[in-house]
Specification:
Elements: E1 48-50, E2 56-61, H1 84-104
Antiparallel strand pairs: 1-2
Length: about 100
Amino acid sequence: MAKAGEDTEFYKDAQFLIPIERGPFYAFEMIPAWYSTLCGVKIDGETRVLGADDQPIPGLYAGGLDSGEFFKDNYNHGFSGGCSGYSYFTGLFAADRATAYIKEG
């Protein structure tokens, strides 16, 4: 399909089709899994880390599974990708908020 310039199975844009013609080639089975921290750091809606007094610590942001107590008191080993959206969003959002904090100086 890459040589032909058309992906008729997954409909990937032709500009991203690159034929791979030389080996060696290897294949393996992979089962992705995500793990989490129980009782992660406490954050607010702006992803600011909260101190013992539940007040934001200036300039400290957190995202991903170590934040927000995503799995506060239980741990579901079967969640595989169930928490990936939370991690992607809060990680990006925390980085944006930290950048804004730095720029505001």
